[in-house]
Write a structure and sequence with these properties.
Elements lengths: L2 H8 L3 E3 L2 E3 L4 H13 L5 E6 L1 H8 L2 H7 L3 E4 L2 H11 L9 H11 L5 E6 L2 H14 L4 E6 L9 H10 L3 E5 L4 H9 L7 E4 L3 H6 L7 H5 L3 H8 L1 H23 L26
Parallel strand pairs: 3-4, 3-8, 5-6, 5-7, 7-8
Antiparallel strand pairs: 1-2
Helix pairs in contact: 2-6, 3-13, 5-13, 12-13
């Protein structure tokens, strides 16, 4: 029995929008990734589901299918609201990637080789340096920034193969990063592969995080909207009502995909700089 199967028995994934989402406490989630990195034959892909990613999933069958093969963790107050409405229970913890990955690196005591892909080159380098100061017992390898040819990425894959990684963090924006992982990453590339979205922008300091009291109130999305209204207004001011409408439809028994808003397709989650080509 694999580590993931063992944890599935202890804390079964909760179906949300017909997608299994792990309901783990912080200690259990950190123990799980620690066990995964400790087993040579282990291999798992971790993704995070928030309201924006759910909106994308409703209109992208390929992305939904890929998430169905990953260990999906709940991210944000929107997912908690959906779970409460649809199942009567909140998730045990808000396991958003921005907090989870640094906590994971602190929790794992054995030295790991951690590969980083995504973001602008200077952001990636700054994030790697911050990670080195945060958990100096790990080795952080800058594989590539996010501006490589996704259809012709042999050089990037070759560097992954040479790097002998334990953990691979990929920040290409959702759903691009999940699709790229699905098409290119093999079991021998790393034991743990995580799609991290805009994490490198936050870790590097390129994008400021909300004050701690705002994060405790689960209001970081409001802070981000306040900082970048022109870039994020569609995601939050149109995306949030669309997400809540989808929750209502599921609550009433509909399993149809969410109808795109009148102004067009909702934006995908992207790093806080232009989307990698």
């Amino acid at each position: 029995m694999t580590v993931a199967q063992t944890f599935t028995q202890v804390s079964p994934p909760r179906p949300l929008f017909d997608l299994p989402v792990y309901d783990l406490t912080w200690p259990d989630a950190l123990a799980l990734v620690n066990e995964l990195t400790a087993q040579p034959a282990a291999h798992a892909h971790i993704s995070f589901l928030n309201a924006n990613n759910a909106n994308i999933m409703f209109g992208d069958p390929e992305y939904r299918a890929i998430l169905g093969q990953h260990m999906v963790l709940p991210d944000g107050i929107g997912i908690d609201i959906a779970s409460l409405v649809l199942s009567g229970h909140r998730f045990s913890a808000n396991l958003n990637g921005t907090d989870f990955v640094p906590a994971m690196l602190t929790y794992i005591e054995k030295s790991q080789r951690v590969g980083l892909i995504g973001g602008q080159a200077h952001v990636l380098s700054a994030a790697a340096e911050r990670f080195r100061r945060h958990s100096p017992w790990h080795q952080f390898i800058e594989i590539s920034d996010g501006f490589f040819d996704k259809a012709d990425c042999g050089a990037v894959i070759a560097k992954i193969e040479r790097s002998n990684l334990d953990i691979l963090l990929i920040g290409l924006g959702t759903p691009l990063q999940e699709k790229w992982i699905d098409r290119n990453i093999r079991q021998d590339h790393a034991r743990l592969v995580i799609g991290v979205g805009a994490l490198f922008d936050f870790v590097s300091g390129n994008v400021a995080r909300a004050p701690s009291w705002v994060r405790r109130l689960r209001g970081e999305w409001v802070y981000r909207l306040w900082l970048e209204p022109r870039r994020l207004w569609r995601r939050y001011l149109l995306g949030n009502p669309t997400f809540l409408w989808s929750v209502l439809r599921y609550r009433l028994g509909s399993r149809a995909a969410a109808t795109p808003v009148a102004t067009g397709q909702l934006p995908v989650e992207a790093p806080d700089k232009p989307q990698p080509r």
